[in-house]
Design brief:
single chain, 128 residues, mainly alpha
């Protein structure tokens, strides 16, 4: 990977890491805030699931934080980054269609799909 692509990959990892860690910490401390992201109400079971999702977001953010300086991280883990970002992006976009207030889920969907496209564009090319 050339220097510009490496720098862009680091920035993508850094932005993703900070965003996911922020959501994780806030979601663990105040899980009802996550209901605003999804435009849903949370009962006791929903609060548990929200905290579990926040812990997962924190774990993903920490993983990306550690990967930001590893030049081979994207090559080794491109599939996981793509599945996560396109999957989460699609889920947020689907939720936006069902939500009474679709702006936040739609915005998060677009951000995740954009990150997925970034990872897709920056992943190292396979050599024949």
């Amino acid at each position: 990977m050339n220097m510009d692509r490496t720098r862009l990959a680091r920035l993508l990892f850094l932005a993703g890491a900070l965003g996911e860690m922020g959501v994780g910490v806030i979601g663990l401390a105040w899980p009802r805030i996550l209901s605003l992201l999804l435009d849903v109400t949370l009962d006791a079971g929903g609060l548990l699931v929200a905290r579990m999702l926040a812990a997962a977001a924190l774990a993903i953010g920490l993983t990306w934080w550690l990967a930001r300086k590893d030049p081979d991280a994207l090559a080794r883990n491109a599939g996981g980054f793509l599945v996560y970002n396109f999957g989460i992006g699609a889920l947020f976009l689907l939720q936006a269609f069902a939500a009474a207030r679709p702006l936040i889920p739609a915005l998060l969907g677009v951000v995740h799909v954009g990150a997925g496209l970034g990872f897709l564009a920056l992943r190292p090319r396979q050599r024949p």
